[in-house]
Predict the structure.
Amino acid sequence: MKILATGAAGVVGGYLPAEVVKTDIDTLDVRERAQVSSALQEHKPDLVIHLAAATDVDQCELDSDHAYRTNALGTRNVALACAERGITLVYVSTAGVFFGDKADPYHEFDVARPANVYGHSKLAGERYVERFAPKSFVARAGWMIGGGPGREQKFISKMLDRAERTGEISAVADKWGSPTYARHLVRGLLRLAETGAYGTYHFVNRGNCTRYDVAVAVTRRLGVSYRVTPVSSAHFPLPAPRARSEALDTMLLRLNGWDWMPPWEEALEEYLSDEWGDWKPGTRKLVPATR
């Protein structure tokens, strides 16, 4: 199977097999329909993994045109191009399509209702995929982990980078989610693409937690003595509203007998062991420079 990936310069793209044709905005801007068509015509993939997205939730809230042009119209362009050529499409979406007021984790049959512009734009992308690309999968991911020091741009590196400067960690304890280890996501997507069982799936490591839970687990595993303090989300005022819960249930994987995503505690342990094993306190530049 020949595979092309959009937006492959990010953390998830780093786990794709070497033989995958990896593109990013410098080589394929999905917002330009002609570029998408040209890329698929040139490489003739059997499968497209669509990762390209505007993922800065606050930037999306402040610039909705940017959010919808990238996450909705860009995804429409990819869906149409795949449909025209009979190419299978995997679109990586987000737990952010849910409002967050459900007590239990959201499953695939719950009605999506986003809490912010980012979630709305990603949901619009889902609808374009469902409408235009019959051979398609929508894979909703959770709180992404992966990349290791100097590459990851998510919670763990930012948390430790701040702790290196202040000696302590303040982590939100009143909002819930489900982590997704990017290595497990890629492995699962490649297996899913072979099934032909098209539809929407939740790809998170099983269980749910708060950022505080993750911070405690990380500091214990790395053996660092930073003080970890639970705080409310009001401690970090941000432009975009956040859902109280982004916890997902992998119901469809479970019902199909596909036990591909281990619990989040195991995934975090594997990630820290594999990619943070050589890290020691005092190491700066954990977070890569903004492009």
